[in-house]
Design a protein that fits this description.
The structure holds two protein chains of two kinds. In chain A, 20% of the residues lie in helices and 32% in strands. By secondary structure, chain A is α/β, with parallel strands linked by helices. In chain B, a hairpin with a 5-residue loop joins strand 19 and strand 20. The two termini of chain B are 33 Å apart. Classes of the chains: A alpha/beta, B alpha+beta.
Chain lengths: 426, 521
């Protein structure tokens, strides 16, 4: 990235984060005709986490072809560079005030404050750590998150260890299981406390099964051993309440333990802004235009809720960027009139409100897997779903015609087993 | 292992001619008495914890040669980095003990030390709470104990006052004893600052130097530490949990040191302000219990447990410890939850027989024990250092003050504690103050570089000096950035960077792992 010689004091739109969400939001915002856009990223190059995801599998939905992470990012970046946009990399947004005064710092231009007509939050997510789940034992070197290991291997060309156990079956962990095998290292197993895998099914097949790496479900790491460097870990099966059975432990010799135990939306700035946060997603509550509880502050991507695939991040961010542009140009659509409510077997819903006069894509995450199910919007619409799991977000199009019979202001979404219903045949 | 002075041939400067060396009794030039060259010291301190570092700084006020040998790669890496970081108000400690004599003196000295050396210290006060009348009585005794000791401001608070001052405490608390003199400190920062000051005043610091043998001839001890042999007139054993092992090297069987482990759990800064004072339960005969501690940096920490351990290096945390700590902490502050935990650690207290400090000369002339320094050892540390100097004087060490003792070290900058205007101002002259390395704790490249210049050699050393990696993402973001700077400034590769020294490598080059046939690297 060429360094930005200077930044202005005043922008129509400031986008925090130049990952897939930030870049898509920037493109969509520029399409609305606004001109003064600043996109800020703390890394040296735009692209966000995609830059370390050198495996393929990105873009099937969005571009209809399979790309690597850097390729996917480059498509957006190439488009952006055709526009007039300021991109400040190696820069860090330190604060955003409620009246959208953005404080940022960079070795290029020092500490600066700029005003923004609107803001898009696109900070992504961070990984849950060992400390968060309080794994007992020693604290040696060699315990790290799967994403950090991925950065070391793919961006620095360094290896995190020789024999790598993986805790958690999140997608990054699965991808790293394969990466370590490809690098000639050993992966004695992936250990998942839940009775089902946490990553996409295609990653289980392509990253574990194809490499004969065992996935141990309902099993967790109960102790880490080694003073300076990991020497081994103790694993144990867990019961239905996820309590480990300490009479059935076994030892896994390894020098590295990677954690892939979940992502947490990165919402420090959202909290400083006093945004309303959804405790189930840990991200800001958003309207159907991806606007947060504060006027002119939009959010998209993993900062709002954790996505399984980047294609959906891009789609969501286009919506946020377009609406940020509309906000700035005074073409903000009327406020939403229906609040969505998580019902039976629904963990979270994004967006949190919709409007009955437009079509919306609504993302729903289930609590537990179901073979065959109905997705129900109150009692006005239902849709057959084949197979739902917590690891794979359900997306549905909610069209105005579904809601013609609906006259309330809170719409509950349920995802229930299909045999409970007399309606319809498979 | 040899005894006695070096022979003329063995002496590193044996080819020089001149006067007789006062220490080695080998005829040499005056340059021999750059004692560095032959490593002859007046005092060698064994152990670079807060006790050893504190003694080192006090001793460098005098015209003597002092060395400190530390087995770890940096000072403060033992029990000193893994304790509660609290400076006791002085009222909790029972009278009639050495602990009781030193705790209040130590407390008062921290104010001045923090001012001189610029580490994090704040007098936030403490509250010892009672849930019933029996506990209220105990608190009254503790309060009286403090007042008798001359500690100002101790008072009993009733429930309404508690609700007003600390609204997040349990509603079941009926009374609390307020000790305004209690404080919190970053103990590792204190170690680094003390040692930096001591080194600036001439201390010979040797890290990665575990002591494996000590012999004594008529006048000198010879200490084998790491690759070094150091001769010294006096030895101060401040080896913490290893003090017994060190004492055995000179044939002593005292002090007998047992380990008592304490687990601590650090919570997300989201909870900052849930309490502003350190909260103690009513102590029992055996324990001060699990505390809720607002650390100097604004995080909340809960702990410690107290568990006897056979292995003095056992710093494991446990599921049982976690359950105990959170259950007891929640009893004090119901808003505390495991969900907010970002890190956990454990340290081992060095417990001597009788539970008191063991400080003083031994049957081996010139060999002092400063051992059994458990709670309130951190609080007492500055007073312990002064006491040790006094004892060394009594034992014949010539204590004449030198001129030009430097009391202060440059105060490190912490970007997180600056206003935007202050940070902008710094960044105007040095852009690395605007380059964020650790985003959770807002640590800049300038701070990392400064810490490395001041002696940080490892990721843990950087973390304890700057807080880089101590926040909620636990190094996920800053680890490669810190490693790059460490590697760059030491002219090494990222593969040479370790978490805390030899053996704790973070990453390897491909060929380092792929070339090996089986076995752990």
């Amino acid at each position: 990235m060429r360094p930005l010689p200077s930044i202005s004091d005043d922008y129509d739109l400031v986008i925090v984060g130049a990952g897939p969400a930030g870049m898509a939001a920037a493109l969509a915002a520029l399409e609305t005709g606004i001109e003064r856009v600043l996109m800020v990223d703390r890394e040296v190059e735009p692209g966000g986490i995609l830059n370390q995801c050198i495996h393929n599998g990105f873009g099937l939905h969005y571009f209809g072809e399979e790309l690597t992470g850097p390729e996917y990012a480059q498509r957006f970046l190439a488009d952006l560079l055709d526009h007039n946009i300021d991109i400040a990399t190696d820069s860090y947004v330190f604060d955003i005030s409620p009246d959208r005064l953005v404080t940022l710092m960079s070795p290029e231009f020092g500490v600066r404050q700029v005003t923004a007509g609107a803001v898009v939050l696109a900070m992504g997510a961070r990984e849950r750590t060992r400390g968060a789940i309080r794994i007992p034992g020693t604290r040696p070197s060699g315990v790290m998150t799967a994403g950090l290991a991925q950065k070391f291997v793919n961006q620095f060309g360094m290896l995190p260890g020789r024999r790598v156990a993986i805790l958690g079956s999140g997608d990054i962990g699965l991808i790293m299981a394969r990466r370590m095998k490809l690098e000639g290292m050993e992966v004695p197993g992936v250990f998942e406390i839940m009775p089902h895998a946490n990553g996409l099914n295609r990653n289980i097949v392509q990253c574990l099964d194809d490499f004969h790496t065992p996935l141990h479900l309902s099993t967790t790491v109960v102790e880490i051993h080694g003073r300076d460097r990991v020497e081994k870990v103790t694993v144990a099966p867990v019961d239905e309440q996820l309590r480990p059975d300490m009479s059935r432990t076994r030892t896994i010799v390894c020098d590295t333990l990677l954690g892939s135990i979940g992502l947490i939306p990165e919402n420090e700035l959202s909290l400083r802004l006093g945004l309303r946060i959804d405790p189930t997603t840990s991200g800001p509550m958003v309207s159907s235009t991806m606007e947060t509880s504060r006027d002119g502050v939009f959010a998209a991507g993993n900062v709002v809720h954790i996505h399984d695939i980047v294609d959906f991040v891009s789609q969501e961010a286009l919506l946020a960027g377009e609406n940020a542009g509309r906000f700035i140009t005074g073409r903000r659509p009327p406020a939403d009139n229906i609040k969505l409510n998580a019902g039976v077997n629904v963990a979270s819903i994004v967006p949190h409100t919709i409007s009955s006069d437009r079509e919306h894509t609504v993302y729903v995450r289930v609590r537990r897997p179901l073979e065959k199910s109905w997705l129900r919007l109150g009692d006005v619409y239902e849709k057959r779903l084949r197979y739902v799991v917590p690891a794979e977000m359900v997306s549905i199009k909610v069209r105005p015609r579904f809601l013609e019979e609906f006259h309330g202001d809170i719409l509950t979404i349920d995802i229930v087993p299909r045999h409970e219903s007399g309606k319809g045949e498979e | 292992m040899r005894n006695g002075p070096l022979s003329r041939r063995e002496h590193p400067k044996a080819r020089l001619k001149g006067a007789l060396c006062a220490h080695c009794r080998v005829a040499l030039s005056l340059s021999c008495c750059e004692r560095e060259a032959v490593m002859v010291k007046d005092v060698v301190i064994i152990g670079g914890g807060v006790i050893g570092c504190g003694i080192a700084r006090e001793l460098t006020r005098y015209r003597i040669d002092v060395a400190l040998v530390e087995s770890e790669v940096e000072v403060g890496f033992g029990t000193s980095k893994s304790n509660s970081g609290i400076i006791h108000g002085g009222h909790h400690t029972e009278p009639g003990t050495l602990k009781g004599e030193l705790v209040w003196a130590g407390n008062q000295r921290w104010v001045e030390l923090a001012e001189e050396l610029g580490f994090g210290f704040r007098r936030n006060g403490d509250l010892t709470v009672a849930f019933d009348d029996a506990e209220v009585e105990t608190l009254e005794c503790i309060g009286q104990q403090g007042t008798d000791r001359g500690i100002p401001g101790i008072e009993m608070w009733s429930a309404p006052r508690i609700r007003r001052e600390e609204p997040n405490l349990s509603g079941d608390i009926v009374a609390a004893l307020h000790g305004p003199t209690a404080g919190v400190v970053n103990p590792y920062e204190a170690c680094f600052a003390l040692i930096e000051c001591a080194v600036a005043n001439g201390l010979d610091l040797r890290v990665n130097a575990p002591v494996t043998a000590i012999t004594k001839d008529t006048d000198f001890f010879e200490i084998v530490a790491g690759g070094d042999r150091i001769r010294s007139r006096m030895v101060v054993n401040a080896a913490g949990v290893h003090a017994e092992a060190v004492a055995r090297l000179v044939g002593l069987t005292e002090p007998a040191i047992r380990g008592r482990k304490g687990e601590e759990y650090l919570l997300d800064k989201r909870l900052a302000g849930i309490v502003s004072r350190t909260i103690f339960p009513c102590p029992t005969a055996t324990s001060k219990g699990v505390l809720v501690i607002p650390t100097f940096d604004g995080a909340i920490m809960v702990g410690p447990t107290a568990q006897a351990v056979e292995d003095l290096n056992d710093v494991t945390t446990s599921a049982a410890g976690s359950t105990t700590v959170f259950d007891l902490a929640r009893r004090l502050v119901p808003g505390i939850s495991e969900r907010d935990c970002i890190a956990e650690f454990a340290g081992v207290r060095a417990v001597a027989a009788g539970n008191d400090f063991v400080i003083g000369p031994t049957s081996v002339p010139g060999f002092l024990n400063v051992a059994g320094i458990q709670s309130p050892g951190l609080t007492a540390a500055p007073a312990i250092a002064e006491l040790v100097v006094e004892i060394l004087g009594n034992e014949g060490l010539d204590l004449s003050l030198k001129t030009g003792f430097r009391r202060t070290v440059p105060r490190p900058v912490h970007a997180a504690s600056l206003s935007i205007a202050e940070l902008a101002d710094l960044a105007t002259s040095d852009r690395s103050y605007a380059h964020v390395v650790c985003r959770c704790e807002l640590v800049t490249e300038a701070e990392i570089r400064d810490a490395i210049k001041r002696g940080a050699r490892t990721l843990d050393g950087l973390k304890f000096r700057t807080r880089a990696g101590m926040g909620r993402c636990q190094g996920g973001f800053c680890t490669p950035r810190s490693m790059k700077l460490l590697a760059e400034m030491s002219g090494e590769s990222m593969a040479d960077v370790s978490k805390r020294g030899e053996g704790s490598w973070i990453v390897r080059e491909r060929d380092q792992l792929q070339d090996q046939e089986g076995g752990a690297p």
